[in-house]
């Protein structure tokens, strides 16, 4: 355990790194009116597998840089919160977000939000949205639908990595058009709506009620997509009227597609995709996926590997034998793949 007076000798420190500390208290309660130690020269406070009992009001404002990284030439704050549910700050994520909102110089946040309260707080704040680089929503069990107005999508101009996991009640993500003076939700791709212009990595893990990921049509720069353990999903991208196909530019930059343990998945989409950048596709335990949206031009000059069970590959249905023969040379049989270990999730 570390008490506030333990920090006294570090008041001139530029970096403090604390690992495996059971409890950290920044309050000095031995004097009238609890005091918080001041670190005027601190640039980096790195905390890992440590528990802070409370974040003092104004503490982040006193610390130019929290968690990771530094800037010697400009005044900025980058928050990298890579913690798990039983680690530092878990119980006070909403308070942390409220504290971050008050900071003038914060411009980069990477954070895990472990419940729907903290997620809704993030999604209601333009300032926080505009700073998000990497976001992991976890265990938002009281959310049935995640509704994002175009203003929210537009604010997340710096979002690069999104992971959503273990949200068992969440059925879908919708781009809501109500703040544009329209009614209801945009049911298909619209060129007038803003997009996640920097989002290049998405991990969707363990959504028991998720139906599809059609909202990905608003992510034109997506490079890596992982979908795992979504037991209700029957299609990756919905829509069959050709509008999405024609206008979305869907998966034009996608290099890696990973599909695992999707027992009801029947299709990726209802039309052929060119996948001009696709290098690798991994499929495991998707026995109802009998067709893939490939033709003779799919992945041309880019595709390197298709890895899946031999039985799945042998059971695929093709438009003609020539297309199957073209992709046979890319196939690599694998009876089991642990995608968590091979490719890694999160950040």
Short summary of the structure?
This protein is α/β, with parallel strands linked by helices and 347 residues long. The protein is 16% helix and 20% strand.
The dominant shape is elongated
The major beta sheet can be summarized as:
10 strands, parallel
Structural class: alpha/beta
Which strand order does the major sheet show?
A: 3-4-5-7-9-10-11-12-13-14
SS summary, helix count:
9
Radius of gyration, rounded? 23 Å
Share of residues in strands:
15-25%
Distance between the termini: 28 Å
**H/E order of the elements?**
EEHEHEHHEEHEEEEHEEEHHEH
Mean pLDDT, to the nearest integer, reads 76
What is the helix content?
10-25%
Uncertain regions spanning at least 5 consecutive residues: 62-77, 81-92, 179-191, 338-347
- How many distinct beta strands? 14
Characterization of the model:
The two termini are 28 Å apart. The strands form 3 sheets. A 10-stranded parallel sheet has the order 3-4-5-7-9-10-11-12-13-14. A two-stranded parallel sheet has the order 1-2. Strand 3, helix 2 and strand 4 form a beta-alpha-beta unit. The protein contains 9 helices and 14 strands. The protein has 347 residues and is an alpha/beta fold. It has helices spanning 59-62, 93-101, 116-123, 126-131, 150-155, 243-247, 310-315, 321-328, 339-342, and strands at residues 15-19, 44-48, 77-81, 106-113, 132-138, 145-148, 161-165, 172-175, 201-205, 224-228, 256-260, 280-284, 305-308, 331-333. Helix 2 (93-101) runs parallel beside helix 3. Mean pLDDT is 76; it is low at 62-77, 81-92, 179-191 and 338-347.
């Amino acid at each position: 355990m570390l008490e506030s007076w333990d920090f006294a000798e570090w008041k001139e420190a530029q970096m403090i790194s604390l690992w495996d500390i059971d409890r950290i208290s920044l309050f000095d309660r031995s004097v009238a009116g609890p005091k918080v130690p001041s670190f005027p020269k601190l640039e980096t406070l790195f905390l890992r597998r440590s528990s802070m009992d409370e974040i003092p009001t104004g503490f982040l404002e006193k610390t130019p840089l929290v968690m990771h990284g530094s800037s010697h030439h400009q005044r900025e704050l980058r928050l990298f919160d890579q913690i798990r549910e039983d680690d530092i700050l878990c119980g006070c994520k909403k308070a942390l977000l409220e504290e971050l909102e008050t900071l003038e110089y914060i411009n980069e946040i990477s954070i895990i939000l472990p419940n729907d309260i903290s997620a809704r707080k993030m999604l209601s704040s333009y300032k926080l949205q505009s700073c998000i680089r990497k976001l992991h929503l976890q265990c938002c069990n009281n959310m049935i639908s995640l509704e994002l107005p175009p203003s929210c999508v537009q604010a997340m101009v710096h979002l690069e990595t999104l992971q959503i996991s273990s949200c068992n009640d969440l059925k879908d993500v919708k781009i809501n058009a109500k703040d544009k003076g329209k009614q209801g939700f945009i049911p298909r791709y619209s060129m007038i709506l803003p997009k996640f212009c920097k989002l290049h990595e998405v991990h969707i893990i363990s959504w028991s009620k998720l139906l599809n990921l059609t909202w990905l049509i608003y992510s034109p720069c997506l490079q890596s997509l992982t979908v795992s353990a979504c037991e209700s999903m029957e299609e990756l991208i919905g829509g069959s009227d050709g509008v999405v196909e024609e206008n979305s530019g869907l998966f034009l930059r996608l290099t890696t597609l990973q599909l695992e343990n999707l027992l009801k998945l029947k299709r990726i989409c209802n039309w052929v995709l060119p996948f001009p950048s696709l290098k690798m596709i991994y499929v495991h335990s998707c026995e109802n996926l009998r067709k893939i949206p490939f033709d003779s031009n799919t992945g041309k000059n880019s595709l390197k590997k298709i890895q899946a069970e031999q039985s799945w590959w042998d059971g695929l249905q093709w438009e003609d034998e020539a297309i199957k023969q073209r992709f046979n040379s890319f196939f690599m049989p694998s009876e089991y793949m642990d995608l968590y270990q091979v490719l890694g999730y999160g950040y």
